[in-house]
Amino acid sequence: MKKKIKAILFDLDGVLVKMPEAHYDALNRALALFGERINEDEHHQYFNGLPTRKKILELEARERLPVGLIEFINEIKQKYTHELIPKYCPPDYSKIILMRHLKDKGIILACCSNSVKETLHSMLRSAGLFDYMDLIIANDEPDPEMYLLAMQKLNITPEETIIVEDSPHGIEAARAANAEVRIVRGVEDVHMGLFNDILEI
Questions:
Q1: What DSSP line would sit under 14-75, residue for residue?
Q2: Residue 164 burial (10 A CB sphere; 0-12, 13-18, 19+)
């Protein structure tokens, strides 16, 4: 018997908006103040998908940054990120149409992201997607608790849930939440065809 999907939980960066490179650029601008940077290989193989504070902690552990600067660097990075949002998060009408179709099918929509709340809301508003979300959870909830918390708040089970993710850390967290995981390579993969079984196209 076909299971009934009630909700779709979306990651944000690299799934609904093209922000991973913006986060990468913003963090490197902040790190440059200390003569440090993350190269592209490091970013894609390890750091992509981690909250900024975890990235800074890891750089501290590798003795690439002085200890005790997490909040200072994070604050600077967030400032640079906000400056980049309009460029990287323009309204995406294909995503807006997709959200409308899913809502018309009675699907609950949520966004769960490692971005801080203010940045997360700004990105969703810039992309025209904020009003379609029934729930938005930012990085004050650690993985995989973020997805488990979303299901709890929405009163749904993992069997009734699809999680859409792109980064290795996010995919691991989604699988740990025991929901169905649909893996995408980037924003371009999030389209009507990804949900043929739900939209019955």
A1: TTTB--HHHHHHHHHHHHGGGT----HHHIIIIITTS-HHHHHHHHHHTTSS-TT-HHHHHH
A2: buried
User: Could you give the CA distance from residue 158 to residue 199 in angstroms, rounded to a whole number?
Assistant: 20
The encoded tokens of residue 161 equal: 């849930």
Return the amino acid letter for 167. S
Q: Cα–Cα distance between 8 and 162 in angstroms, integer?
A: 5
Q: Which two tokens stand for residue 37?
A: 């940077």
Distance CA 35, CA 91 (A): 35
pTM of the model: 0.82
Using one digit for the tens of pLDDT, what is the confidence trace for 1-59?
457 999 999 999 889 998 878 889 999 999 999 999 999 999 888 888 788 889 999 99
Contacts of 127 (CB under 8 A, 6+ apart): 16, 17, 89, 90, 91, 92, 95
The size of the chain, in residues, is 201
